[in-house]
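Weekly structure sync, notes
Attendees: PL (lead), two postdocs, one rotation student
Agenda item 3: pending single-chain targets
PL asked that the sequence for the first pending target be pasted directly into the notes so everyone works from the same version. It is reproduced below exactly as submitted, 86 residues in total.
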Amino acid sequence: MRFGSSSTAPAPSGPQRPGVLSDPERKSHKLWESVTDTVAGACGYCAGAFDAANSLHHPKVHLIDDYHGHPSIRALLADGYQVLTF
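Predicted structure, written out during the meeting:
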């Protein structure tokens, strides 16, 4: 499986992606740059579980850990977001 370059490494997990995409050598770097200002953060629990917390410092992605290490769904709903399930 390939992710954004000619590397044969497995695709990074969700919380690892910002650290990978912030590398200017990646093909997907320009895409990351175009959306980086809309990224609210990454799940603190998931970042820890996938050993990605350190890789989120360079792209300056905030770890969200409102509720037992996870983002608070209740707070998101209160802010007007909707939960979609499919």
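Discussion points:
- The radius of gyration is 14 Å.
- Strands lie at 42-43, 63-64.
Action: rotation student to compare against the earlier draft before next sync.
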